[in-house]
Write a structure and sequence with these properties.
The protein contains eight helices and 13 strands. With 315 residues, the chain is an alpha+beta fold.
């Protein structure tokens, strides 16, 4: 039986200790730990990497603290448009959705696309129609309403500005500057298979149906049993231009770099050269985990069958 590992993230960016109340910090740590525990239980019972990463993301999508699912930010039009992707490293099967509305768990819909659609990527109304056909749970607009996200959108909705993620008014403390709200998970299961999944509500006040890197296979999400599974969070445009997730796999496959080395090269050299801020999590074919960021913080955690069980917020 192979070693098994789950790694998760809940977004990166300007996440500073001095901007965080103890109450809020504890809430984030609790949310991360719960997602780790639920997904680790899947692996511990012999479940697949795909089911483990999906389980982690369902919990994070249901947690209003994170910009995905229920906690998704408001677009220019004052609605939520969500993106998600999942990939199975054993056969390179993948499913992704972009610009979906009212879907409680976009990662569930991405999984349905992977398993039951004969396609990889569905968007907008078509993706929603497919959700209805597959019986994926929908929620009314009110489910996705949170006052602090609404206040944050209201402050910039009449401008052409967009915001990378949330400033918290109603969570006791104002969190300033740039935050990239995305949730993600990567896993290696006891059979040695890898999987990756990513989900996001995108950017506050985004226009034109903007899509970031999260649902783009190879940019924000990638898994291949030969090399690694990667989930990214950051300024999506730069991650797309760098094909960031797949580049880690390439550096491992063709240059023989380790997971840690490949991730550091992409995050701290390639992305930095384009002023791309953020981070990524990864797990390799041997079950090694890595979490690399070039921003001030990244909500993240790792748990494996050797007793490692840690969550982190700051760099």
């Amino acid at each position: 039986m192979a070693d098994y590992t789950i790694v998760i993230h809940g977004g990166a960016g300007t996440i500073l200790k001095e901007d965080m109340t103890e109450q809020l910090e504890n809430a984030y740590q609790r949310g991360l730990q719960e997602a780790l525990d639920v997904s680790y239980a899947v692996l511990d019972q012999g479940g697949t990497a795909v089911n483990a990463v999906k389980a982690a993301l369902v919990l994070l999508e249901d947690n209003v603290l994170f910009n995905a699912g229920r906690g998704s930010v408001f677009t220019k039009k004052g609605v939520q448009e969500m993106d998600a992707a999942i990939m199975d490293g054993s056969d390179l099967a993948a499913g992704a959705v972009a610009g979906v509305r009212n879907v409680r768990n976009p990662i569930e819909l991405a999984t349905e696309v992977m398993r039951n659609s004969n396609h990889v990527f569905l968007s907008g109304k078509g993706a929603n129609d497919f959700a209805i056909k597959q019986g994926v749970k929908l929620e009314p607009d009110e489910y996705f309403f949170s006052q602090f996200r609404y206040d944050q959108w209201k402050a910039i909705r009449d401008s052409d500005n967009y915001s990378l993620d949330h400033t918290h008014h109603h969570l006791e403390e104002l969190l300033k500057d740039k935050k990239f709200g995305t949730v993600g998970a990567v896993a290696r299961d006891s059979k040695g298979n890898l999987a990756a999944a990513t989900s996001t509500g995108g950017m506050t006040n985004k226009k034109y149906g903007r899509i970031g890197d999260s649902p783009v296979i190879g940019s924000g999400t990638y898994a291949n049993n030969k090399t690694c599974a990667i989930s990214c969070t950051g300024h999506g445009e730069m991650f797309i231009r760098c094909v960031a997730a797949y580049d880690v796999s390439c550096l491992m496959e063709y240059k023989g770099l380790s997971l840690q080395e490949a991730m550091e090269k992409v995050v701290n050299e390639k992305l930095v050269s384009l002023s791309g801020e953020g981070g990524m999590i990864g797990v390799d074919a041997a079950g090694n985990a890595a979490m690399v960021l070039n921003s001030a913080g990244m909500y993240r955690g790792v748990r494996n069958n050797k007793g490692v069980n840690n969550v982190y917020i700051y760099r």
